């Protein structure tokens, strides 16, 4: 999963107009001057839930309830939501103020509770078999947030099927680059499905123009999603599959899953 974040330069004084900042035409924050106060709003411009965090480092600014150097607010925003999260005003109107914002978001619902009784289909055609080259706690890259990911080695162009039903909320298929270094991570092609329990299924390293679904599609277990590749942070052609829940500050965490190996339907 790709982390999304934005850091906004320090602005001094109270004279700025209403300003809005967005990432990926999806998650936004606004700051609005109303007299000697600043209002902060978070918004979600897509019909899929996200978890957003706004950190504001301040000088000579207080909230309605406290005086801090840093204010941190995290919200789960459902479809097309827009909410006010913070109001700041000058402590001393005769002194200058400053504020620096850092904004983060990730698809899905914060701390979503995974349905541990669900048995996932293998993410490829039922008449095929592929070697797991890295599983849970894999020493190469399956640590931390991706601790419970599974990598299946497979030739480029192998059909990838949904391991669980869900809605397509994010995808990328325009990249061509890949390599065995984290600097290539931003070039991964992928499909993200939102599951009914608020977790997301991530299918990574797809080939260029290798996505067979569209944003908003509701897909069934076993449905074709696209074709495997070798894009992004990838040392060999393979599919990276994992299930995640969202956390604050653009972070996420994989969860342990069980495959139904007796039947791939």
TrEMBL record:
Annotated InterPro entries: Cell_wall_metabolism_enzyme, Dup_hybrid_motif, M23ase_b-sheet_dom
GO terms assigned for molecular function: metalloendopeptidase activity
Keywords, in A-Z order: Signal
Signal peptide location: 1-20
Residue ranges occupied by any M23ase beta-sheet core domain in the UniProt entry: 148-246
Short name of one Pfam family: Peptidase_M23
Record protein name field: M23ase beta-sheet core domain-containing protein
Organism of origin: Paraglaciecola chathamensis
């Amino acid at each position: 999963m790709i982390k999304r974040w934005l850091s906004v330069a320090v602005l001094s004084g109270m004279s700025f107009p209403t300003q809005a900042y967005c990432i990926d035409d999806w998650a936004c924050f606004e700051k609005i001057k109303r007299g000697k106060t600043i209002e902060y709003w978070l918004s979600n411009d897509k019909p899929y839930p996200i978890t957003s965090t706004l950190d504001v480092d301040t000088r000579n600014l207080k909230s309605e309830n406290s005086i801090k150097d840093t204010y941190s607010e995290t919200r789960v925003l459902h479809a097309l939501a827009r909410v006010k999260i913070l109001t700041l005003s000058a402590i001393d109107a005769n002194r200058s103020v400053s504020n620096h914002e850092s904004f983060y978001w990730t698809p899905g619902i914060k701390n979503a509770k995974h349905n541990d009784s669900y048995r996932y289909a293998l993410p490829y055609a039922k008449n095929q078999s592929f070697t797991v080259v890295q599983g849970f706690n894999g020493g190469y890259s399956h640590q931390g947030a991706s601790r419970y990911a599974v990598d299946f080695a497979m030739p480029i162009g192998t059909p990838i099927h949904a391991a669980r039903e869900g809605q397509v909320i994010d995808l990328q298929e325009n990249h061509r680059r890949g390599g065995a270094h984290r600097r290539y991570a931003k070039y991964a092609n992928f499909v993200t499905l939102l599951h009914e329990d608020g977790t997301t299924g991530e299918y990574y390293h797809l080939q260029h123009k290798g996505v067979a679904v569209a944003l908003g599609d509701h897909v069934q277990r076993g449905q074709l999603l696209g074709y495997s590749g070798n894009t992004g942070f990838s040392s060999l052609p393979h599919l990276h599959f994992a299930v995640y829940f969202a956390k604050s500050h653009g972070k996420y965490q994989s969860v342990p899953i069980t495959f139904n190996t007796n039947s791939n339907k």
